[in-house]
Specification:
411 residues; alpha/beta; six-stranded parallel sheet
Length: 411
């Protein structure tokens, strides 16, 4: 496992400034990805936190960031955020539609201070449509897109893929693509814009190939009946003698031949394209895998092109020989965590700092972003209009509880 280093600039986004209005789920992950790529991400935390229920010291999605605390419901709170937006390239927020505007930090107010700003909006339902004002979470968003209904056994309820498919794949990654594309446009034209990243849109977009297969008549609109959803006996998971699992993806003929050969089922070589034999093939494969432990089968398929791998737990994964050799996981601040991805030949990335604690970056951010003067008396700000009491406007006591009254989307 690699050990992260903190010295020096890292990543292709070095020099890009990002303001993240604190939330939960896909917004923080998107901001972490930008921070991993080298952006200077300032997270605007609210007094009292977001209600996520995780110790800030363990919240890996806040690594490589700095934090200030602002009470957006205080008289001077919005002015603090607008000061940041005026100096930023990108702003990310995850409120329900209209909430940022009511708080005084919506696109109009931000663009009045900084016309080049890319304003990224992360929600589940999007900025418009009948459900736009409603709360939600990952599972509901992916449910209506058809993607949740694809996953799982045919005679069981749909399997819940944690919040990876909606929040992070359909949400965070599309927000990052969107704000970086908009940043490219802003730098070419001098004009910023609003990026509406909705989990329902991104998750639907992820299923483009499946919709093509459905239209072409090679995908059935039901679970467990298709090539890639467990319906195929040589693309799925099988239990081993010790109650563990092996994953099989031997789709192509040459991989299938190697798979059946190493499994000792050469007599089933012809069953690959004969759907009438898939039932007996599945039974034979399942029986063979049950005859040995996961460790034994891993050794059998080691170094082969049979496309078979052990199904590991989260704690086991960092110790897999391939992931360990690549440094796919790293350790920083006593936390084992996924290393930044992807990788760059000229601008390498790294975990530079551990999870940002709320408010711990106030002085450094004010200095580095050339914000107004920072009195050290620690008093609460008045109205923030004179632009000279920025640190005074940092909230020192709880003012909001981070729940539904702040209008978060729920992701």
């Amino acid at each position: 496992m690699a050990t992260a280093e903190a010295a020096g600039p890292h990543g292709p986004l070095t020099g890009v400034r990002v303001v993240e209005l604190a939330g939960i789920g896909p917004g923080p992950f998107a901001a972490m990805l930008l921070a991993d790529l080298g952006a200077d991400v300032v997270r605007v935390d609210r007094p009292g936190g977001t209600g996520l229920g995780i110790d800030p010291a363990h919240d890996i999605t806040n690594r490589n960031k700095r934090s200030v605390v602002v009470d957006l419901k205080s008289p001077g709170g919005p002015a603090r955020v607008l000061d940041l937006a005026a100096r930023a390239d990108i702003l990310i927020e995850g409120y329900r539609p209209g909430v940022a505007e009511r708080l005084g930090v919506g696109p109009g107010a931000c663009h009045a201070r900084n016309p080049r700003l890319v304003y990224g909006r992360m929600t589940g339902w999007g900025q418009d449509g009948p459900l736009a004002p409603r709360a939600g979470h990952d599972i509901a968003y992916i449910a209506v897109t058809g993607t949740l209904g694809m996953i799982g056994e045919p005679d069981a309820p749909p399997a819940v893929p944690a919040n990876l498919l909606g929040d992070y794949a359909g949400g965070s990654l599309y927000l990052v693509v969107g704000v970086l594309a908009a940043l490219h446009h802003a730098r070419a034209t001098g004009t910023g814009q609003v990026v509406d990243a909705a989990i329902v849109d991104g998750t639907t977009h992820l299923s483009a190939m499946i919709h093509g297969m459905l239209a072409g008549g090679v995908w059935q609109d039901r679970r467990g009946a298709n090539l890639l959803d467990g319906g195929c006996p040589y693309y799925g998971t099988y239990e081993t003698a010790d109650g563990r699992y092996m994953a099989v993806g031997a789709l192509e003929q040459r991989f299938y031949d190697e798979f059946t050969g190493l499994l000792g089922l050469a007599e089933h070589a012809g069953a690959r394209t004969d759907h009438t034999r898939w039932g007996e093939l599945r039974e034979a494969v399942a029986a063979r895998f049950k005859s040995r432990t996961q460790r034994e089968w891993t050794a059998v398929f080691e170094g082969s092109d049979a496309c078979v791998a052990p199904v590991l737990s989260l704690r086991e994964a960092p110790h897999h020989p391939h992931l360990a050799a690549r440094g796919t996981f790293t350790e920083h601040s006593g936390l084992t965590q996924p290393a930044p991805a992807p990788r760059f030949s000229a601008t390498p990335t790294a975990v530079r700092t551990g999870p940002a604690r709320p408010g711990d970056g106030t002085a450094a951010v004010a200095r580095d972003w050339d914000l107004p003067a920072l009195p050290e008396d620690g008093k609460d700000g008045k109205d923030g209009k004179d632009g000279n009491d920025w640190k005074d406007g940092m909230a020192r006591t709880a003012g909001t509880d981070g729940k539904a009254d702040d209008g978060e989307d729920g992701s």
